[in-house]
Amino acid sequence: MKKVxxxxxxxxxxxxxxxxxxxxxxxDPNSLPNLIKNSWDLVFYLDNSCLPFNDSFLxxxxxxxxxxxxxxxxxxxxxxxxxxxxxxxVAQKSYVDFFKKxxxxxxxxxxxxxxxxxxxxxxxxxxxxxxxxxxxxxxxRKKFLRKLQKYVPLKIINGPWQDIYPYFxxxxxxxxxxxxxxxxxxxxxxxxLLITDHxxxxxxxxxxxxxxxxxxxxxxxxxxxEYFLSNRAQxxxxxxxxHNKFLNFHTEYHRxxxxxxxxxKIKIREKTQLDFKRYKLGKLLWLKKIYSVISSNNVADIDxxxxxxxxEVSIF
Length: 316
Fold this sequence. Notes:
Rossmann fold, six-stranded parallel beta sheet, alpha/beta
Protein backbone atom coordinates (compact mmCIF):
# COMPACT_ATOMS: atom_id res chain seq x y z
CA MET A 1 0.00 0.00 0.00
CA LYS A 2 1.39 3.40 -0.96
CA LYS A 3 1.29 6.23 1.55
CA VAL A 4 0.14 9.63 0.28
CA UNK A 5 0.34 13.01 1.97
CA UNK A 6 -2.01 15.73 0.66
CA UNK A 7 -1.17 19.27 1.74
CA UNK A 8 -3.81 22.07 1.88
CA UNK A 9 -6.78 20.39 0.17
CA UNK A 10 -8.76 17.15 0.40
CA UNK A 11 -8.73 16.85 -3.40
CA UNK A 12 -8.13 13.26 -4.62
CA UNK A 13 -8.27 11.85 -1.06
CA UNK A 14 -11.40 9.76 -1.56
CA UNK A 15 -10.49 8.32 -5.00
CA UNK A 16 -6.97 7.48 -3.83
CA UNK A 17 -8.37 5.77 -0.73
CA UNK A 18 -10.80 3.80 -2.87
CA UNK A 19 -7.88 2.72 -5.06
CA UNK A 20 -6.08 1.30 -2.04
CA UNK A 21 -3.75 4.13 -1.04
CA UNK A 22 -3.25 5.20 2.57
CA UNK A 23 -4.05 8.94 2.54
CA UNK A 24 -3.43 11.67 5.10
CA UNK A 25 -4.56 15.27 4.57
CA UNK A 26 -2.63 18.11 6.21
CA UNK A 27 -4.51 21.39 6.68
CA ASP A 28 -2.79 22.56 9.86
CA PRO A 29 0.71 24.08 9.52
CA ASN A 30 1.51 22.97 13.06
CA SER A 31 0.96 19.30 12.24
CA LEU A 32 3.30 19.17 9.24
CA PRO A 33 6.61 18.85 11.17
CA ASN A 34 5.36 15.65 12.82
CA LEU A 35 3.89 14.29 9.60
CA ILE A 36 7.11 14.65 7.63
CA LYS A 37 8.90 12.46 10.18
CA ASN A 38 7.00 9.58 8.63
CA SER A 39 7.79 7.77 5.40
CA TRP A 40 5.75 8.79 2.34
CA ASP A 41 5.60 7.53 -1.23
CA LEU A 42 3.74 10.51 -2.70
CA VAL A 43 3.41 14.09 -1.49
CA PHE A 44 0.95 16.45 -3.17
CA TYR A 45 1.15 20.19 -2.62
CA LEU A 46 -2.30 21.36 -3.69
CA ASP A 47 -2.43 25.06 -4.53
CA ASN A 48 -4.48 27.24 -2.21
CA SER A 49 -3.16 30.51 -3.66
CA CYS A 50 -0.91 31.01 -0.63
CA LEU A 51 2.79 30.57 -0.01
CA PRO A 52 3.69 27.17 1.48
CA PHE A 53 3.29 27.47 5.24
CA ASN A 54 6.20 25.05 5.68
CA ASP A 55 8.20 23.70 2.75
CA SER A 56 10.32 21.15 4.65
CA PHE A 57 8.26 18.44 2.91
CA LEU A 58 10.38 19.15 -0.18
CA UNK A 59 13.26 17.31 1.48
CA UNK A 60 11.28 14.08 1.85
CA UNK A 61 12.37 11.01 -0.06
CA UNK A 62 9.09 10.79 -1.94
CA UNK A 63 7.67 11.71 -5.32
CA UNK A 64 6.57 15.33 -4.94
CA UNK A 65 3.72 16.74 -7.03
CA UNK A 66 2.59 20.35 -7.28
CA UNK A 67 -0.93 21.07 -8.54
CA UNK A 68 -0.71 24.71 -9.68
CA UNK A 69 -4.25 26.07 -9.87
CA UNK A 70 -4.11 29.86 -9.58
CA UNK A 71 -1.45 30.23 -12.24
CA UNK A 72 -3.43 33.03 -13.89
CA UNK A 73 -2.76 35.08 -10.73
CA UNK A 74 0.71 33.82 -9.71
CA UNK A 75 2.19 32.68 -13.03
CA UNK A 76 5.85 33.62 -12.56
CA UNK A 77 6.02 32.84 -8.85
CA UNK A 78 4.46 29.39 -9.18
CA UNK A 79 6.43 28.49 -12.30
CA UNK A 80 9.72 29.31 -10.56
CA UNK A 81 8.70 27.38 -7.45
CA UNK A 82 7.62 24.36 -9.53
CA UNK A 83 11.25 23.68 -10.47
CA UNK A 84 11.94 21.67 -7.27
CA UNK A 85 9.01 19.26 -7.73
CA UNK A 86 9.11 15.97 -9.60
CA UNK A 87 5.86 16.78 -11.42
CA UNK A 88 3.82 19.94 -11.82
CA UNK A 89 0.18 19.71 -12.86
CA VAL A 90 -1.10 22.97 -14.32
CA ALA A 91 -4.82 23.70 -14.15
CA GLN A 92 -4.81 26.24 -17.00
CA LYS A 93 -3.81 24.88 -20.41
CA SER A 94 -2.29 28.06 -21.84
CA TYR A 95 0.33 28.19 -19.04
CA VAL A 96 1.80 24.71 -19.47
CA ASP A 97 4.50 25.75 -21.95
CA PHE A 98 5.68 28.50 -19.60
CA PHE A 99 5.95 26.01 -16.72
CA LYS A 100 7.95 23.64 -18.93
CA LYS A 101 10.72 26.25 -18.98
CA UNK A 102 11.28 25.40 -15.30
CA UNK A 103 10.09 21.81 -15.07
CA UNK A 104 10.02 19.46 -18.05
CA UNK A 105 7.46 17.29 -16.21
CA UNK A 106 4.68 19.86 -16.55
CA UNK A 107 1.25 18.61 -17.65
CA UNK A 108 -2.20 20.09 -18.12
CA UNK A 109 -4.64 18.78 -15.52
CA UNK A 110 -7.96 20.63 -15.80
CA UNK A 111 -10.01 21.27 -12.71
CA UNK A 112 -12.94 19.03 -11.78
CA UNK A 113 -15.74 18.59 -9.27
CA UNK A 114 -16.95 15.72 -7.10
CA UNK A 115 -20.15 13.88 -7.90
CA UNK A 116 -22.97 15.18 -5.74
CA UNK A 117 -26.37 13.82 -4.82
CA UNK A 118 -29.42 15.92 -5.59
CA UNK A 119 -33.08 15.30 -6.27
CA UNK A 120 -33.41 14.65 -9.99
CA UNK A 121 -36.90 16.12 -10.24
CA UNK A 122 -36.18 19.16 -8.10
CA UNK A 123 -37.88 22.28 -9.42
CA UNK A 124 -35.27 24.65 -10.82
CA UNK A 125 -35.73 28.30 -11.67
CA UNK A 126 -33.72 31.43 -12.32
CA UNK A 127 -30.00 31.94 -12.50
CA UNK A 128 -27.23 32.42 -10.00
CA UNK A 129 -23.57 33.04 -9.41
CA UNK A 130 -21.88 31.53 -6.36
CA UNK A 131 -18.66 33.20 -5.33
CA UNK A 132 -16.87 36.04 -3.60
CA UNK A 133 -16.83 39.48 -5.21
CA UNK A 134 -14.98 41.32 -2.47
CA UNK A 135 -11.33 40.74 -3.33
CA UNK A 136 -9.47 43.24 -5.51
CA UNK A 137 -8.71 40.59 -8.14
CA UNK A 138 -12.47 40.16 -8.62
CA UNK A 139 -13.17 43.81 -9.42
CA UNK A 140 -13.99 43.31 -13.11
CA ARG A 141 -16.13 40.29 -12.32
CA LYS A 142 -18.00 42.29 -9.69
CA LYS A 143 -18.73 45.14 -12.11
CA PHE A 144 -19.90 42.67 -14.77
CA LEU A 145 -22.26 40.75 -12.49
CA ARG A 146 -23.68 43.80 -10.72
CA LYS A 147 -24.44 45.31 -14.10
CA LEU A 148 -25.99 42.03 -15.28
CA GLN A 149 -28.36 42.09 -12.29
CA LYS A 150 -29.96 45.22 -13.70
CA TYR A 151 -31.16 43.30 -16.78
CA VAL A 152 -31.80 39.72 -15.66
CA PRO A 153 -32.89 38.17 -12.31
CA LEU A 154 -29.39 37.03 -11.32
CA LYS A 155 -28.83 36.05 -7.69
CA ILE A 156 -25.28 36.39 -6.32
CA ILE A 157 -24.80 34.06 -3.37
CA ASN A 158 -22.03 33.03 -1.01
CA GLY A 159 -22.16 29.51 0.37
CA PRO A 160 -21.55 25.84 -0.47
CA TRP A 161 -22.26 25.39 -4.18
CA GLN A 162 -23.61 21.85 -3.62
CA ASP A 163 -26.45 23.30 -1.55
CA ILE A 164 -27.28 26.10 -4.00
CA TYR A 165 -26.84 25.11 -7.65
CA PRO A 166 -29.39 22.24 -7.72
CA TYR A 167 -32.17 24.78 -7.07
CA PHE A 168 -31.22 26.96 -10.05
CA UNK A 169 -31.65 26.41 -13.73
CA UNK A 170 -28.72 28.52 -15.03
CA UNK A 171 -25.27 29.18 -13.60
CA UNK A 172 -23.57 32.27 -14.98
CA UNK A 173 -19.79 32.20 -14.91
CA UNK A 174 -17.37 35.10 -15.28
CA UNK A 175 -13.74 34.06 -15.18
CA UNK A 176 -10.72 35.97 -13.95
CA UNK A 177 -8.06 36.34 -16.64
CA UNK A 178 -9.70 33.66 -18.82
CA UNK A 179 -9.19 30.83 -16.32
CA UNK A 180 -11.07 27.56 -16.69
CA UNK A 181 -12.32 27.65 -13.11
CA UNK A 182 -13.95 25.25 -10.68
CA UNK A 183 -17.34 26.87 -11.23
CA UNK A 184 -17.52 25.36 -14.74
CA UNK A 185 -17.31 21.84 -13.36
CA UNK A 186 -19.42 22.51 -10.27
CA UNK A 187 -22.27 23.84 -12.42
CA UNK A 188 -22.20 20.76 -14.65
CA UNK A 189 -21.94 18.46 -11.62
CA UNK A 190 -25.20 20.08 -10.44
CA UNK A 191 -26.91 19.54 -13.82
CA UNK A 192 -27.28 23.27 -14.40
CA LEU A 193 -27.15 25.03 -17.74
CA LEU A 194 -23.78 26.77 -17.83
CA ILE A 195 -23.48 30.16 -19.52
CA THR A 196 -19.86 31.23 -19.40
CA ASP A 197 -17.22 33.37 -21.03
CA HIS A 198 -14.54 31.54 -22.96
CA UNK A 199 -11.47 30.05 -21.26
CA UNK A 200 -8.53 28.38 -22.91
CA UNK A 201 -9.13 24.63 -22.89
CA UNK A 202 -12.92 24.84 -22.47
CA UNK A 203 -13.64 23.54 -25.96
CA UNK A 204 -11.10 20.74 -25.53
CA UNK A 205 -13.43 19.37 -22.86
CA UNK A 206 -16.95 20.49 -23.85
CA UNK A 207 -18.80 21.26 -27.08
CA UNK A 208 -19.93 24.84 -27.49
CA UNK A 209 -23.72 25.21 -27.84
CA UNK A 210 -24.21 21.47 -27.27
CA UNK A 211 -22.85 21.13 -23.73
CA UNK A 212 -21.98 24.66 -22.64
CA UNK A 213 -23.18 28.07 -23.76
CA UNK A 214 -20.57 30.80 -24.17
CA UNK A 215 -20.74 34.55 -24.56
CA UNK A 216 -18.10 36.97 -25.83
CA UNK A 217 -19.43 40.24 -24.37
CA UNK A 218 -21.94 41.66 -21.94
CA UNK A 219 -24.75 42.08 -24.47
CA UNK A 220 -24.39 38.51 -25.71
CA UNK A 221 -24.54 37.23 -22.13
CA UNK A 222 -27.89 38.99 -21.58
CA UNK A 223 -29.19 37.72 -24.89
CA UNK A 224 -28.33 34.08 -24.12
CA UNK A 225 -29.65 34.20 -20.57
CA GLU A 226 -32.97 35.60 -21.77
CA TYR A 227 -33.16 33.10 -24.62
CA PHE A 228 -32.68 30.02 -22.43
CA LEU A 229 -34.99 31.28 -19.70
CA SER A 230 -37.66 31.27 -22.41
CA ASN A 231 -36.57 28.05 -24.14
CA ARG A 232 -36.30 25.50 -21.36
CA ALA A 233 -36.68 22.42 -23.56
CA GLN A 234 -33.58 23.30 -25.57
CA UNK A 235 -31.69 24.25 -22.42
CA UNK A 236 -32.64 20.94 -20.79
CA UNK A 237 -31.11 18.98 -23.67
CA UNK A 238 -27.86 20.94 -23.35
CA UNK A 239 -27.55 20.72 -19.58
CA UNK A 240 -28.36 16.99 -19.48
CA UNK A 241 -25.81 16.32 -22.21
CA UNK A 242 -23.19 18.31 -20.28
CA HIS A 243 -24.02 16.59 -17.00
CA ASN A 244 -23.49 13.18 -18.60
CA LYS A 245 -20.17 14.34 -20.07
CA PHE A 246 -19.12 15.51 -16.61
CA LEU A 247 -20.05 12.19 -14.99
CA ASN A 248 -18.14 10.21 -17.62
CA PHE A 249 -14.97 12.30 -17.87
CA HIS A 250 -14.54 15.15 -15.39
CA THR A 251 -15.02 14.01 -11.81
CA GLU A 252 -12.38 13.94 -9.11
CA TYR A 253 -12.03 10.20 -9.77
CA HIS A 254 -11.18 10.78 -13.45
CA ARG A 255 -8.54 13.36 -12.55
CA UNK A 256 -7.02 10.96 -10.02
CA UNK A 257 -6.64 8.32 -12.74
CA UNK A 258 -5.01 10.92 -15.01
CA UNK A 259 -2.52 11.80 -12.27
CA UNK A 260 -1.59 8.16 -11.68
CA UNK A 261 -1.12 7.66 -15.42
CA UNK A 262 1.23 10.66 -15.57
CA UNK A 263 3.19 9.43 -12.54
CA UNK A 264 3.61 6.00 -14.14
CA LYS A 265 5.51 7.41 -17.11
CA ILE A 266 7.58 10.32 -15.78
CA LYS A 267 11.31 10.25 -15.21
CA ILE A 268 12.27 11.71 -11.84
CA ARG A 269 14.41 14.81 -12.35
CA GLU A 270 17.65 15.44 -10.53
CA LYS A 271 17.28 18.79 -8.76
CA THR A 272 20.10 21.31 -9.20
CA GLN A 273 21.23 24.35 -7.26
CA LEU A 274 19.60 26.45 -9.96
CA ASP A 275 16.26 24.76 -9.27
CA PHE A 276 16.43 25.69 -5.59
CA LYS A 277 17.50 29.24 -6.41
CA ARG A 278 14.51 29.54 -8.71
CA TYR A 279 12.27 28.26 -5.93
CA LYS A 280 13.70 30.86 -3.55
CA LEU A 281 13.22 33.64 -6.10
CA GLY A 282 9.61 32.58 -6.62
CA LYS A 283 8.96 32.80 -2.87
CA LEU A 284 10.61 36.21 -2.67
CA LEU A 285 8.55 37.58 -5.56
CA TRP A 286 5.40 36.27 -3.86
CA LEU A 287 6.42 37.78 -0.52
CA LYS A 288 6.98 41.10 -2.24
CA LYS A 289 3.40 40.98 -3.57
CA ILE A 290 2.10 40.36 -0.06
CA TYR A 291 4.15 43.05 1.67
CA SER A 292 3.44 45.58 -1.07
CA VAL A 293 -0.23 45.29 -0.08
CA ILE A 294 -0.09 44.99 3.71
CA SER A 295 3.12 46.81 4.67
CA SER A 296 6.05 48.53 3.02
CA ASN A 297 8.40 47.81 5.92
CA ASN A 298 9.99 44.66 4.49
CA VAL A 299 9.81 45.43 0.76
CA ALA A 300 13.30 47.00 0.62
CA ASP A 301 14.88 43.94 2.23
CA ILE A 302 13.01 41.61 -0.13
CA ASP A 303 14.05 43.72 -3.14
CA UNK A 304 17.65 43.46 -2.01
CA UNK A 305 17.46 39.64 -1.89
CA UNK A 306 15.72 39.52 -5.26
CA UNK A 307 18.40 41.68 -6.87
CA UNK A 308 21.08 39.28 -5.62
CA UNK A 309 19.32 36.24 -7.09
CA UNK A 310 18.18 37.73 -10.39
CA UNK A 311 21.57 37.55 -12.18
CA GLU A 312 21.82 33.83 -11.35
CA VAL A 313 18.26 32.84 -12.17
CA SER A 314 17.01 33.13 -15.74
CA ILE A 315 13.23 33.56 -15.81
CA PHE A 316 12.86 33.52 -19.58
